[in-house]
Amino acid sequence: GQNIDQPTEMTATEGAIVQINCTYQTSGFNGLFWYQQHAGEAPTFLSYNVLDGLEEKGRFSSFLSRSKGYSYLLLKELQMKDSASYLCAAPLSSGSARQLTFGSGTQLTVLP
Amino acid sequence: DGGITQSPKYLFRKEGQNVTLSCEQNLNHDAMYWYRQDPGQGLRLIYYSQIVNDFQKGDIAEGYSVSREKKESFPLTVTSAQKNPTAFYLCASSTRTTNEKLFFGSGTQLSVL
């Protein structure tokens, strides 16, 4: 089957580091995406991991372990504008096409 | 500028009425998608299309219909058969359906009067 789990809410302080975890169970795994979504807006792409390890992009990094079915998004030097929902997504197998399955999202609140 | 445009931003539906949400992209993407998002939940796939004149049901297609007569356009109709239509609807596109990142429109909030 296909399932993606992530915490519902997290709170952190401006300037701090936060790690948002995501676990998945999906057959035929082929990559994991992270998106950021501000309230009432469209999700925007943050990262895509297909190989094990850490990928860094400025203040944001994403890690993947395929053997453990686990990923995390690491946000450094938190800013108030980082308050948003962070969605973990992976392709599932559906007939002849592979479509993204999204987790429920982790609502991050950054406090001053 | 290339992008994906949804309209309207807000839409109200009366009971028994069909309403259509517009989605247009000028990114020359082959694949287009419709997702529904309820408060505090992730995105659920309604319909997707890999090519013009072809579309497939997603996980929650009941009560919805789509068409793909042009590569640029993928309108979604919320029919009267959809008994709980209040949600945030997101349209997206990608270069192909496998492992390509999605580009999203700004969304349509549909509410029932």
Give a quick summary of the entry.
The complex is a heterodimer of chains A (112) and B (113). Chain A has 112 residues and is mostly beta strands. Chain A has strands at residues 3-5, 9-13, 18-25, 32-37, 44-49, 53-57, 60-65, 70-75, 84-94, 97-102, 106-111.
What can you tell me about this protein's structure?
The complex is a heterodimer of chains A (112) and B (113). With 112 residues, chain A is mainly β. Chain A has strands at 3-5, 9-13, 18-25, 32-37, 44-49, 53-57, 60-65, 70-75, 84-94, 97-102, 106-111. Chain A has no helices and eleven strands. In chain A, the strands form two sheets. In chain A, strands 2, 4, 5, 9, 10 and 11 form a six-stranded mixed beta sheet that branches. The radius of gyration of chain A is 14 Å and the shape is globular. Chain B is mainly beta. Chain B is 0% helix and 50% strand. Chain B has no helices and eleven strands. In chain B, the strands form two sheets. In chain B, strands 2, 4, 5, 6, 9, 10 and 11 form a seven-stranded mixed beta sheet that branches. The radius of gyration of chain B is 13 Å and the shape is globular. The relative contact order of chain B is 0.33.
